[in-house]
Amino acid sequence: RDYGRQNLRNIGHRDHKRRAIDALLAAYPALPFVLMGDSGQEDPEIYASVVQDFPDRILGIHIRDVTPGSARRRQEIAALAEE
Fold first, then answer.
1. Cα end-to-end distance, the chain, whole Å
2. So what's the pLDDT on residue 14?
3. Are strands 58-64 and 33-38 parallel, antiparallel or unpaired?
4. Which residues contact 44 (CB under 8 A, 6 or more apart)?
5. Is 4 left (phi over 0), alpha (psi -120 to 50) or beta?
6. What is the per-residue DSSP string for 12-81?
7. Low-confidence spans in the chain with pLDDT less than 50
8. Under a CB-based contact definition with an 8 Å cutoff, are residues 10 and 37 in contact?
9. What are phi and psi of 34, to 5 degrees?
């Protein structure tokens, strides 16, 4: 995470996280990555888009379930994993 000046502007979670991931992928073009996030915001959807754009660079994704009472959310995440 970067809590610098750029976060003082109204940048959405999705855009901020995606830009950060894209910057890391560009900075280390020879390295594969494992993405780690949680089910609380949009991490599963963001990471799915990264895998679509960089299928050979992402070795795996780990999503920590922080919404234990939400069966629907777990089903949405499971559907993304199947894709």
1. 27
2. 83
3. parallel
4. 37, 61, 63, 76, 77, 80
5. beta
6. -HHHHHHHHHHHHHHH-TT--EEEEEESSSSHHHHHHHHHHH-TTTEEEEEEE---TT-HHHHHHHHHHH
7. 1, 8
8. no
9. -115, 125
